[in-house]
Fold these 4 entries.
Entry 1:
Amino acid sequence: MVVVASLLAPSVKAQAQVQMDRQTRAREWRDPGNLGELRKEAERSAKELEEATKALEKRRSTIAASEKELKTKLTALQELERRLAVMRQPVSQMVELLYEQPIAAGGVLPFLTEGADEGTLRALTDATHIVAVRQQAVEQTSALYKETERLAAEAQELRAGNLLAEAQLAAEVDTLRQRSDKIVKSLTAALVKLGIKIDKVGRAALGCDPLRAATAGDYPNGLIPKGMLCPLQQKGFSLRADATIAFVSLNEAYRKRFGKPMCVTDAYRNLAEQQSIYYRRPGFAAVPGRSNHGLGLAVDLCGGVERSGSAEFVWMERNSKKYGWFHPSWAYSSPFEPWHWEYDPKMDSLL
């Protein structure tokens, strides 16, 4: 049972740690409207799932090695069975060999009366050797039986331990996956409640999954598929999932301060839109394929924010970084774009 215990110990420990983490974090995000905390919880959950999945793959690799060891043991077991089969030959064969010796011709009496010739003595020596070989075979057979029983027990223990350990880890991964999905659904529901429009079949919900944000970064600037973007509360505009979630939180804080939502004139721009703006407004747009708008990480604002020094602009300067948004240094002078704001995932992760 030592093998089984060693296989199960890491999984049991991991399961206990996961349970502890759940209880701790359950106290951290009681308010489902806290989008930032929900997003971070989803990311933490995804990380746990990733680590558990890696642990499962590692365990499966260990199990594969154990199965190889098991195969070796079973092969050894088959060899022992073969050797035992040879040793189980009827003892009568040995007896027949004894009868074939010259003892039968010379008789035992000459030996007993000290009249035995050389042939009789050789026959008796051969008989003694045959008896010794038989005794050795009996002892070897007994030892082989014990070895067979030991190998069979080890093989059974290895297989049972492997199956149990894999099943337990797989169940743990499945639990973490369900938990991650539940958190993302809660986050999506909170976004819908705050005005994010998601179609009836939930296609847009995939774009609002913060766990897909990094995947959106795999696409070239301006070529992110629509399904990988999350719509804003402001109709017709969208961003990368993490940027949208942070922007919605910022927008709600802005609404609380000014009694109205933020005014948006631009968000994600595909490559064609970047080219159009670049040629229409030379000097006020990045070279197509290099704009942060094409990454789904920038917005252009109106409603007062576009005027440097306004109450709205000053409020944004003081509060936007709390949500991962900032006004880039170049936008203060070259070119002067007070309306342009960008989202930094790294900044948001430190908040």
Entry 2:
Amino acid sequence: MTQPLSCPLCNAPGAVAYHRDARRDYLQCQVCTLVFVPAHQHLDADAERAVYDQHRNSPQDAGYRRFLSRLQAPLLERLTPGAEGLDIGSGPGPTLSVMFEEAGHPMAIFDPYYAPDPTPLSRRYDFITATEVVEHMAAPGDELIRLAGLLRPGGWLGLMTKRVTSHQAFTDWHYILDPTHVCFFSEASFRWLAERLDMELSFADHDVVLLRRSNKAH
């Protein structure tokens, strides 16, 4: 890899080689520490959709509900009654939105493949969730800035994604085997993001991050 590549999170040039396997290269940004797969090694839309079509998640799956509750539970502790939310990347079997609605929080959904109507992206929300989504984003910087802009003052952005902890752990990590995973965040990446967005940051679980927008209207 000789050509300079810009980081898809912070747009800084000069990413360096971090890891390589039989299928892909993994580069690391020297500013925000994001590890990412270069764009020319991403799946095309049809191949990506084919992977997602294999998912069999649904609201009837108790195990999947337990998994999602790791994001839902800390958010519920912070939301006011009736707070309105948006679930991004809801997938072929929307479940987190159902769970929040059962708890009294109206939810809209958006998914580029399974719920592509962009109308929900023109409204404002008290909270936005994205579970196992940011690792799929080709341009997470642009996408997360856009989502933060949809929050009302004091609103929450709840993200679930497994985090990079060390180079050694990365080389043996099952998470990088999914060909649709192209961006890998560390705690430092999220700290950079929180500063960029001017949002309060908290790590609610080993793979759950909550960012809160200022109460001041912009």
Entry 3:
Amino acid sequence: MSDFVLDHTMIRVSDLEESMDWYQSHLDYEEKGRWDGDGFTIVYLGPEDVHEDGALLELTHNEGEEDYDLGDAWGHIAVRVEDVHDAYYDLMDEGVEDYRRPEDNPGYAFVKDPDGHEIEIVERDHGAKWSLDHTMIRVEDADEHLGYWTRKFEYEHAGRWEADTFANYFLKPADAPEEAMTVELTYNYDGRSYDLGDAWGHLAVRTSDLHDDWDTLMTREAEDYRDPESCDDMYAFTKDPDGHEIEILDPHDSPVDRS
């Protein structure tokens, strides 16, 4: 497994069983791991044949919490299919709400999960069906964030789209396979600011040595948010310039079974 490859995207859900049923029924996800904590449950989901460097979706359910704010700093997760039109209308036949049709978009479509998290459907010739292709976050300063991901995590450009009013930049580690998830930075030229909300949790990157890589991040002046010692030496957290949380995770300490 590659260092600093994106391991998962975490979202918070109000009804764990409803969300698990939605993702398992419509995206054919299976449970890859689970962690029951004091007042919360974490479940990792993904396709049966997800690549070893592919990303998973983490659902977090906090007991007694049923109303989350989506904010607008997090955009969406994107999943891969061979044919967007067929995949979208298969979901419509299954009772998924009609949201943004492929006829109205150049090669993609959108649906929403039960909590309103947006899911983009994109056509790809690689990766398992419904596997995570990218996670989009909105950023207030494109130059700052491009520098952040390239300096802190040694990410490289994997694609870009520049329009009249906005730009999208895709990044991932240079040695990551094409099946790995990218991070999409969306920059709107009008100078707007964003609300993080609390329905989206974090992005997570893998490490082969949590403490050494944490020290490297500190040398590169990443934010010291939650160091390994404060997280029982199992993981750590930093933040990007806009406050999006990024977990640093040793997969050997994760409940996920990738065998």
Entry 4:
Amino acid sequence: MDNRRPVEGRTITTDQPISQPQAPPVCPRHPDRVAYVRCQRCGRPACPECQRPAAVGIQCVDCVRDAAKSAPRTTTAVGGRVRRGRPTVTFTLIGICAVMFALQLTVPGWTGRFMYAPVLGVHEPWRFLTAAFLHSTGFFGHIIFNMWALYVTGQFLEPVLGRARFTALCVLSALGGSVAVLLLASPAQAVVGASGMVFGLFGAMVPVLRRLGGSAAQIIGLIAINGVIGFLVPGISWQGHLGGLVVGLALGYGFAHAPRERQKLFGWLLPAAVALVLVVAVVAKYAAVGVL
């Protein structure tokens, strides 16, 4: 092969082929970005956004995700999936309550649209749940106490139970409080507040703490004090507290004492069974008073 290069007006012939300049490597996920760092696992280039520190070197985000999928699932003693980071569900629920409270203060009629009373729930069943995210606008201590209690209990229960079980516990406890109001209170009694949910979390903590070898004396004392207050202070729905507490105790006990090999199954079947019981109770009550 005749390879010639002009140098200062002369032509130099060499025996070696002239190499063509190669294009710089680019990130497969971001082709517009040059990436000289390669993944230690797959060898592909990875831009800074797609790089993840590994035990040795750097891995790309795709390899890290694939490794996480193939890694064995780590669970807590009661079957919750171990996750790092903040309790997402707890903060989400607190955020929803805060937004709803702001709307109550600024939008006329907002509370009336979503509060719950047995006479309203028969035709607008979503009120059984939405009332749990509303609070008294005349007493700020109502939302402050409930959000504090939700934060404290959620910090413990959400990591132990896992997000799915914890979400089911919160939703069903809130529904249980509304159902108890239907069964035990006046048909016209209107209620708002996350107290049913909070009492459900209190109730669930008792069997879970005992299952983990801890003492439940303080939480039992807190339940007793708040239970007495509900009977003595006007304007507090002890029925909602009781309903949430019963649901929380049932779910907490079931989650805590499920056989190890069947914890995942119990995590789905138990909430479904509790939800079915609540629905049957609602239908039976409305049918008994002749509104269905």
